[in-house]
Amino acid sequence: MAGISSRREAETLITSGRVSINGLVTTTLGSKADPSVDIISVDDKPITVRKERIYILLNKPAGYVTTLKDPDGRPIVTDLIKDITERLFPVGRLDFNTDGLLLLTNDGEWANRLAHPSHQVPKEYHVKVRGEVTPETIAKLSNGVKLDDGWTAPAKVEIVRTIGKNSWISIVIHEGRYRQVRRMCETVGLLVARLIRTRYGDLQLGEIKPGTYRHLTQEEIRSLIEGKPDKQQKIKTQEKDLHKKKNRGK
Ligand code: URA
């Protein structure tokens, strides 16, 4: 990957003592090193690995964990990405039993920017619930409910449809606390039968079949962390107007 040798030639470079990891020569084939953290040198010259950056949107089926290892041996989301050899990791998490939109990437900086608390994008969930969904229940969920880690911020909550004793509701939240939607529903007495993430920022789950994925476009990759130029401009103008008004009052 560094354009120095073929895989076979690399083995010879290693066994002949020309390769070092963090300054220590290694002659053992199969030694592990991570080019993103370790300094790998050939003949004392550090190599650079050109890494293709990958961003995908997966429709996660229920029954998969979003951690990279599971002590209980349950299936892992990356098991579904068979034709990409780069090591991808999920941006944030979805529960084992949750379906829907999950982003995966190998770009740590992009993932960190997305996950940073100052950059919370709206996330929409469709929840199939058992129990009566009254206007009071919707109001409670919308205004915020008290969880054991504090009140939830206001959310946009709507009934999508009701079939017999089940209803589908849509919940849009900006936070991303552990099992937040399930805990919000439990707190107002709703039993969650199914939970699907249908939107992340401007990205919709769309028609992607469960267990399959698509690559994001350059525009999607950029706008997720920067926001749409027109939206950003609007916010800046509103902030300026507010600032002017406040100063006028002084
Ligand atoms: N909220 C939950 O309760 N679970 C998820 O997987 C995502 C959001």
Task: Describe the structure in your own words.
- The chain has helices at residues 7-15, 108-115, 135-143, 180-187, 218-226, 229-248, and strands at residues 19-21, 24-25, 40-42, 45-46, 55-60, 89-90, 99-105, 123-130, 146-147, 150-151, 156-163, 166-173, 191-200, 203-204, 213-215.
- The protein is an alpha+beta fold and 250 residues long.
- The chain folds into two domains: 7-46, Structural Genomics Hypothetical 15.5 Kd Protein In mrcA-pckA Intergenic Region, Chain A (Roll); 55-227, Pseudouridine synthase.
- The strands form three sheets. Strands 5, 6, 7, 8, 11, 12, 13, 14 and 15 form a nine-stranded mixed beta sheet that branches. The protein has a four-stranded antiparallel beta sheet with strand order 2-1-3-4. The protein has a two-stranded antiparallel sheet with strand order 9-10.
- Strand 3 and strand 4 form a beta hairpin.
- The longest helix is centred in the last third of the chain and has 20 residues, at 229-248.
- The radius of gyration is 24 Å and the shape is elongated.
- Residues 94-95, 98, 179-182, 195 line the site of uracil.
- Uracil binds next to helix 4.
Task: Quickly describe the structure.
By secondary structure, the protein is an alpha+beta fold. Helix content is 25%, strand content 27%. The relative contact order is 0.13.
CATH hierarchy: architecture of the largest domain: 2-Layer Sandwich
Number of strands: 15
Q: Structural class given helices, strands, pairing?
A: alpha+beta
How would the global form be characterised? elongated
Structural Rg? 24 Å
CATH class of the largest domain: Alpha Beta
Q: Please report the number of helical segments.
A: 6
Within the CATH hierarchy, at the fold level, what is the topology of the largest domain?
Pseudouridine synthase
Could you estimate the helical fraction of the residues in percent?
25-40%
Low-confidence stretches: 229-233
Bound compounds, please? Answer: uracil
* CA-CA gap between termini: 62 Å
Q: Look at the structure and name the CATH superfamily of the largest domain.
A: Pseudouridine synthase
Describe the main β-sheet briefly: 9 strands, mixed
Number of domains: 2
What is the chains' assembly state?
single chain
Residue fraction in strands: 25-35%
What is the mean pLDDT? 89
Helices and strands, in order, run as: HEEEEEEEHEHEEEEHEEEHH
